[in-house]
Design a protein that fits this description.
This protein is mainly alpha-helical. The chain has one domain. The chain contains two helices and two strands. A hairpin with a 2-residue loop joins strand 1 and strand 2. Helix 1 runs antiparallel to helix 2. The two termini are about 20 Å apart. The relative contact order is 0.20.
Length: about 80
């Protein structure tokens, strides 16, 4: 079960990286705006959270995850 959750977490982390990439391209074209800053910040937090979740589950310690500010962080 934890391997499956780990793989799903990797996919979500990749989606976060994609969001950051899209927003960075948007900033290059239109300049830095409030929405772009928010999306980049959210994308970074999202990606860090899912990478931590993936690492926690892929090494078998998925039951040791804790939630901080709504993001799941593995310890």
């Amino acid at each position: 079960m934890s391997i499956t959750v780990g793989i799903i977490s990797v996919v979500f982390a990749l989606l976060g990286i994609g969001l950051i990439h899209l927003e960075v391209n948007e900033v290059k074209e239109n300049g830095l705006g409030f929405a772009s800053t928010g999306f980049i910040f959210f994308g970074v937090l999202w990606t860090i959270g899912w990478i931590a979740m993936a690492l926690g589950n892929l090494n078998g310690s998925g039951e040791n995850t804790i939630e901080i500010f709504g993001f799941i962080i593995a310890n």
